[in-house]
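Could you please review the protein record set out just below?
***
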Amino acid sequence: MGRKWNNIKEKKASKDANTSKVYAKFGVEIYVAAKKGEPDPESNRALKVVLERAKTYNVPKAIIDRALDKAKGSGDENYVELRYEGFGPSGSMIIIDALTNNVNRTAPLVRSAFSKNGGNMGVSGSVTYMFEPTAVIGLEGKTADEVMELLIEADVDVRDVLEEDEAVIVYAEPDQFHAVQEVFRSAGITDFTVAELTMLPQNYVSLPEDAEAQFEKLIDALEELDDVQQVYHNVDSEE
C-alpha cells in the first residue's frame, strides 16, 4: 500500500522526540477522549484507541496518568475537534485533524503553513472523498499467512494482511480495530508496532524530487503546529 507504517511511525517519533511534541499532543488527545466518557479504557472505546496508539509511540506512563488525572479531576478545558483539507505540490492531497481550545487561532496557522509551503487549503469535502477511514494494526513474530489464519479462525474480517519491513500489517474497517487486537492478544501477542485509526488514500501519487522536498516542508510545518494531531496524505512514502 506504499505506506511502510513502521518507518513512518519511527521517523515521526524520532523527529518529535527532540521537542516532546508527540507527548504533549498525546496528553491533549488522552484528556479529550477521557472527558468524552468515563476515564476508563474498558468502558470508553475512544480512550482505549488513543492509549493503544500512545503505547506504540512509547509515551511515558507519567504523561498518560497526568492526562487521565486531569480528566478525572477539575480539568475544564474545552477542546474542539476540527478537520482541514488541502492540496500540496503536484496533486498531493492532505487532511489535517486538530484539537484546539481556540478555533480562531488554529485555522489561520494551518492556512499559513499551506501558503508558505506551496499548498492551499480546500473546502470541506474537497479531499476526504479520496480517502477511506482504516484501522491499521502491526505486529512482529508472525508471518502474513499465520496472521490470516488467526483472523479466519476467529471469524474476523479484514481488508488486507501484508508483510512490510519485517512486520505484518493488518488493514481493517475502523469498527474492527479492537476485534483484531483481541484476536492477537488471545494468541499471546500484546505488543503492536502500529495501532492506528487513520485515513488511507484510494490512490497514491509519486512526486518529482523538487516537489517532494517542498511537500516534506509543508508536512513538517503542519505537524509542528501544537493544535495539529494527525496529518494524512496521498504521497507514496516508500523509500
